[in-house]
Amino acid sequence: MKSHALLVGLGIFLSRIAGLVRERVFAHFFGNSDAGDAFKAALKIPNFLQNLFGEGVLSASFIPVYAQLLAKKHDEEAAKVASVVGSLLFLLTSFLVLGGVFATPFLIDLIAPGFTGEKRTLTIQIVQILFPGTGFLVMSAWCLGILNSHRRFFLSYVAPVIWNLSIIAALVLWGGKQGQFDLAVTVAWGLVAGSFLQFFIQLPSALRLGKKISPSLNLQLSSVRTVVRNFVPVVFSRGVVQISAYIDNVLASLLPTGAVSALAYAQTLYLLPVSLFGMSVSAAELPAMSQATGSDEDIRHYLQGRLNRGLQQIAFFIIPSVVGFLILGDLIVGAVFQTGQFQAENTRYVWLVLVGYTVGLLASTLGRLYSSTFYSLKDTRTPLQFAIVRVIFATVLGVLGGFYLPEALGFDKQWGTVGLTVAAGTAGWIEFYLLRQALNKKIGKTGLPLIFQGKVWFMALVGAGAGAVVVRLLVDPAVHVIIRAVIALGIYGVLYFLLGYMFKVEQAHSLLQKILRRIR
Asked: Between the chain's N and C termini, which has fewer beta carbons within 10 Å?
């Protein structure tokens, strides 16, 4: 598990670093502007389709069936399943992309009802450009499903690097030559080019590993019917999650200028640990869990052991991420985004929005692994039910926290964005609790040991506190924010791992022992 999770994590790390560079360059040219709001809002519709029919759905419906066929050495049937799923996905996304281009003017009123005039017109233009790129991203997720099932994790998760580089190139090459509105259109074309390249670099490996893959619409295979049967609830489940994000975007569009951009900037940082540690472990575990064989008791015991180990592995990295965002978040946001049009006041604003997301960070990452365990059991309906509950709570709490609470407390309307993210984090904990309770009834007690949690929280608080004290009391505030962030995070990281070694926390102990052996 560790080696596979490491490959996924490394691929995601490289793609997320490229993503952070992309966002920093984007912030340099757009800041919290109308053009920036338009571009970020426009991304919501194509991203909705990508997330609805892309990696998450295929991981939950396609990988468990395909991986189990490979485990049983039914390679020919596995190739047929991959062929049919790829063909169906191609037809479905082609229809949706074509329809989406023509329906864009109507869709804009759904995602950003607060946009008017030139801002609304620009958003429509960008969405119409981005739709074709969405089709390539969905098909690249089909490649990812094949590659992951064959335990080829790195390529599929590092492929988004080229997507980010394409956008960065468009920003750098035209950023000094065009105004913000024209630049937003140019960057949209760069995104489409990157989407094609992301799909193209994965396709040869997927076809080679899948063998005998060819266009087919044969729905008679029982394995294909299983994928399709699982596909529908997962689509609804992902759709519910996307609806939640859509609602946040709608509510943010009703808040003052900069709210939509601030949400997007905060999400970039929030999703970094989710992807690096939550997704990496969950993605590596799903094929392994899906290949479990033996009696029902053997399978339950096997899943219970893998899940508990995975939870500790995730928590070891997510808990310090939570503490880091809370205590050192202003330095992190400033180091990543503070440049050009993005000034110190924007940094403080985005930090507080990020703090709201951080409320549910641990729940969201642990919840991914619980959902993957359900998917490995071919149970796609239970996560759907709890996702619906999450959206209901996120919406109700979002309206209260985004509009009524700031007014009641006498705060400016822009701080309603923080209320939206706190609401989303709270709803994430409700979903996690329901997932854990339901899975415990299926496979037995699971979760994080209290002693382990106590050690990790203590390590994180001491490390982050020391970093904050040094930077805020001993380092001149005039020193560039990137340097101050490096000092604070460096102290944090060293202390965290040293304390982990002293407390004999397995993850820290094994890592530092390997480093010491190499030094000797």
From this structure: C
